[in-house]
From TrEMBL:
Boundaries of every SF3 helicase domain copy: 12-183
PROSITE patterns attached to this UniProt entry: SF3_HELICASE_1 (PS51206)
Protein name per Swiss-Prot or TrEMBL: SF3 helicase domain-containing protein
Keywords, sorted A to Z: ATP-binding, Hydrolase, Nucleotide-binding
GO function term, MF aspect, one: ATP binding
Pfam family, one: DUF5906
Naturally occurring in which organism (per UniProt): bioreactor metagenome
Organism lineage: unclassified sequences, metagenomes, ecological metagenomes
InterPro entries per UniProt: Helicase_SF3_DNA-vir, NrS-1_pol-like_helicase, ORF904-like_C, P-loop_NTPase
Length: 303
């Protein structure tokens, strides 16, 4: 497996991947973390996940859909499972309202599950391993809980170019030809994972891998960071919504990080500005001979 992964990942990333896959084979999330595989389409993420599912056993795997995690009966689908998988998820997967439940499902919380049409409930113990794959650069719905996400998230980025010639059902071929070696690779990872858990209570993640997760969380919090760094409370001051949006985009461009959509920015500004600066919304800010929408009692910091 190391030889297969070497063109796509660093040695440190392969070690982290092996440990997490080993923990998946054990069927218990000792470390209260989940794994995000992100990057190149066709770079091997899907093949890896298929191999993991088959080693763990499809009967022990459930698909996780953050858009439905707050729905009444969704948790019941996880009864009797040990591994949750989100395959090729969209870029807003961790921004949906149900994404918060991922922390419970992996963080040893007790969760009530209700069965549809059965008049029955069950208690789930949130010890699920979870692996999410995406071709997109994801952002997280932080809701002021950045440190909790930092404790939970392991991000491994695939930056290799996609293979020129794809092999049909490559996972099946690998398992047929190298199945015992792949299982041994994961079992060695399980031993290393348990050693990490005994030492620190979680999987030990090298700084180079942690930096990717930290960067993702910083990008996810870009609007909040922008307001902290580029806006200040000034009685009698005012800033138009369009001026805030333009300044935010410029801030993100300067840092070379993706900006949120203008619609997303506009939807969050009112609450953030009120909470941080006691700013009030107005549709009567004067700009030249016209009036525009914006916020009073704040100003942009120039520089």
């Amino acid at each position: 497996m190391n030889e297969l992964l070497a063109p796509a990942l660093s040695d440190e990333a392969i070690l982290v991947l092996r440990k997490y896959f080993g923990m998946c084979v054990l069927g218990y999330n000792y470390s209260q973390q989940f794994l995000l595989l992100e990057g190149t389409p066709g770079g091997g993420k899907g093949t890896l996940t298929t191999i993991l599912r088959r080693i763990v056993g499809e009967m022990n795997v459930a698909e996780v859909r953050t858009s439905l995690l707050n729905e009444r009966f969704e948790m019941a689908a996880f009864c009797g499972k040990t591994l949750l998988v989100g395959s090729d998820v969209p870029g807003n997967f961790l921004q949906r309202s149900g994404a918060e439940a991922l922390k419970k499902l992996t963080g040893h919380d007790l969760i009530e599950a209700e069965f549809k049409g059965a008049n029955r409930r069950a208690m789930l113990h949130g010890v699920f391993n979870a692996v999410i794959t995406s071709n997109n650069r994801l952002r997280v719905r932080l809701d002021g809980d950045e440190e909790a996400w930092r404790r939970r998230l392991i991000l491994v980025r695939f930056s290799n170019p996609p293979v020129i010639k794809k092999i049909v059902d490559f996972a099946t071929q690998l398992l047929r030809e190298e199945g015992s070696g792949i299982l041994n690779w994961m079992l060695h990872g399980a031993v290393d994972a348990l050693a990490d858990f005994r030492e620190s209570g979680k999987l030990i993640v090298p700084d180079s891998i942690q930096k990717d997760a930290d960067d993702l969380l910083y990008e996810s919090n870009s609007l909040n960071n922008f307001l902290d760094e580029r806006v200040t409370a000034v009685p009698g001051g005012d800033v138009a919504t369009s001026e805030l949006q333009n300044a935010y985009i410029s801030y993100c461009n300067t840092l070379n990080i993706p900006a949120m959509s203008l619609q997303a920015v506009a939807s969050r500004l009112a609450t953030l500005l009120r909470d941080k600066f006691d700013a009030t919304y107005s549709n009567m800010l004067v700009r030249g001979s016209t009036t525009v929408r914006g916020y009073r009692n704040i100003e942009l910091i120039v520089g």
